Every structure is written in C-alpha cells, then in structure tokens.
C-alpha cells in the first residue's frame, strides 16, 4: 500500500518545523514579488497536490544541519556504519549499511494486512503499528548485522515527506537511540533515499543522471545534478502514476494491500491491452509533464458502465496507456538533455514503488538502449520503502559533512526534492 491510498483518509495538516519555516522565509529572496499565473503554474509542476505555497519551496538543502561536531572525522571514515530508520508510511523498516555499500543487516515489518480491509492507509492504525514494531525492527537489523548499538557510527532517519504521526515514531526512536548511545543524528528526505539508493547499488554511477521518481504519491522527472541538488524537468499535474494504479485496482475490486500496482500488473497479464481505446494524456504537449487523472476517470467510466467488461482487459489497457504516457515524456526529457549538452547525462535511475513493474522495466530498457544510456533500476525488493535507502542517503550526507541536531528539527509531511523547473 502506498501514500496515495491515504488520499481520502489523509487528515494530517502541514506543520513544518519552526526552524525550517524560518529558513524557508529567509531563503525566499523574492518573497513579496507578485507572480503571474503562468509563473506559478511552472513553479508548481510536479509538486504533490495539497502542497501549500510556502511548503513548495522546501528543498533538501533547507534542512541541512547546522550541527556538526565530529562530522569531519566521520565524513572521511572508510568503514562508516549507519543505521537507517524508515516509518513514513506503512512499512516499518531499518537497516545497517556500511560506506562501501554493503547492507550488513535489514528488517521490514509491513502493515499491508492491517490496512487491507480499509482500502487505504489509516493513519492512526499505521502509527500504532509503527510504534509496536519499531524497537523489534531496529533490534533485528542490528542482530542480522551482528552488531550492537556501539558499533553504529550514526543514525539516519526519514523526517519527511510522509504521514507526520508515522514519521514521528521513527524520528523519536532515532533521537532516543542517539541520546542513549551518544551517536550523531542525520535527517533524510524519503524521496532522496529512493534516488540515491541507485548509487549504493552502482558505485560507479556519476552525477548528473536522470531520475524517474514513480511512486504512490510522487511522479517526477528530474536531473540529479549533484549530491542534494535536483532540477525538475516535469511532473504530474494531478495524480501520480502509482495512485492511478491503486485507484484502478480499487475500481476493479482487486486486493490493494501492498499497493494496487502489483495486482493490476498481474491481472493485465491475461488481458487484451487493445481492448479499450483509453485516452493518451497530454499527447500534444511538448513538455515533460504528466497527467493521470483523465486516464483514471476513463477507467472508472468503463468499470461503472460496461456490464460485459473483462477486468483483465481493462487492467491491460490501462497499463498500456499509463506506461506509454510515461515513456513518451521520458523520451522528451532525454532528447532535451541531449540537445542541451550532448553526452552530459548518460544514465537513467528509476525509483519508487512503480519501478517494480516488469512491463515498465522492459520498456525503459528499450528506451535507454535507443539512446545508448545506462539504465539503473533497483531490484523490486528495494524499489519499495526500505531502511537501506535511508541509511545510504544518511551516509552520503555525512560524507558531505552534514549532521543534524534533532532538537532543532521536526518531521514534515510535504518535502519535494525540487520545485526548480528547468525544462524550456
Ligand atoms: O515508493 P512506494 O513504496 O511508496 C510511496 O508511495 O512512497 O510506492 C508504492 C506505489 C503504490 O502506488 C503501488 O501500487 C506502486 O508503487 N507499485 C506498483 C507496483 N508495485 C508497487 N505499480 C505498478 N506495478 C507494480 N508492480
Ligand atoms: Zn517510497
């Protein structure tokens, strides 16, 4: 299950930390400037729905730590070992990772069964389940790594984006661990975790690279320019692709525990993908933006009105269009990169839960081979939320000399990687 499924259940308001808010204000040099509708639209491309004006200005660098005693020594430590903790949605996960990219131990407790009957993540139940699981998950990750807390050099934890009440469980656990064992703390953006995991798996992956972030709550095409620096080429104007999969699954009455994507993908295997002529979104637009709301509504219409429908055919037709749309926009993004500076960007990293989709993976392989780019997609198990990606993002931040002071931080529900649109 994913953050998209929280949609109608989401009751958590945006309540960023005071320190962060001050920094955002301070960082908005053009704070009072009047913005045209077009400028505003450009600025908000790919920004998740419901993100307020001010919160859209978050970026990774804004919450980087001012607290760095000992960070110099840690940054250069060859055998640096970081414990990563993740509780942003419905997986309680932890992992112990070493700076050479070895996952020494990991553990995940999934809440799929708890939320299954509700058709989406119920925040309070999720919070309770995280609270019940967190200590055991951390212990198990350490046990698998054959380590005790003393062996860990630092703790990295997801502080956003996600459900605040869930994020806080991991955040508090990390804070307590650091206090009890006198360890440094580092805050991690969940989306950055998904992106940089590719660098843990492929140690030779150099910046810049194209990032395709496709999850339940996010759908963006970015260029990772360097550590913590992302430029936005395009993103969804409404629903994320994972969200469209989840809604299609619900409309077809499929199991949505663990997200509707796998169920739709499975069903589509036995369907005729040309059975329904679903509309291809934004076909005439020359930019890299995406839209899945129209496709979702078209599926709803068929599901509600076509009495003789075959669910397999709907699933297959939906999947064909959903993936073709993404591929079309990726081709535009790749052409743009090549036109801008030929040969500068040569790799594509695909991350987020939808990257587990086999059909998408095979289409991406073809596109990358056409452009002679390298394709980096984590194994399906690491596409969904896990502790290793948080530990690794923590390692990269520590290596940049960053540590955070947990006393000055709060969790944040919205925290886009970038809102700086560079596509023109
Ligand atoms: O990154 P993730 O685990 O959670 C967040 O949303 O952050 O992504 C979950 C999303 C869900 O929407 C789920 O339906 C989708 O990824 N997903 C898939 C597949 N596996 C997971 N979508 C299509 N095909 C799949 N095989
Ligand atoms: Zn995720």
From TrEMBL:
Source domain of life: Eukaryota
Q: How does it assemble?
A: Homodimer.
The principal location of this protein is: mitochondrion
Q: Extract one GO BP annotation from the record.
A: tRNA threonylcarbamoyladenosine modification
Q: What is its EC number?
A: 2.3.1.234
In its UniProt record, a GO molecular function of this protein is: metal ion binding
Family of the protein in this entry? Belongs to the KAE1 / TsaD family.
InterPro entries for the chain: ATPase_NBD, Gcp-like_dom, KAE1/TsaD, TsaD
Q: Locate the Gcp-like domain: which residues? A: 103-392
Tell me the compartments it is located in.
Mitochondrion
Chain's role: Required for the formation of a threonylcarbamoyl group on adenosine at position 37 (t(6)A37) in mitochondrial tRNAs that read codons beginning with adenine. Probably involved in the transfer of the threonylcarbamoyl moiety of threonylcarbamoyl-AMP (TC-AMP) to the N6 group of A37. Involved in mitochondrial genome maintenance.
GO CC annotation: what is one? Answer: mitochondrion
Q: Which NCBIfam families match?
A: gcp_kae1, T6A_TsaD_YgjD
The name this protein carries in UniProt is: N(6)-L-threonylcarbamoyladenine synthase
Q: Which residues form a coiled coil?
A: none
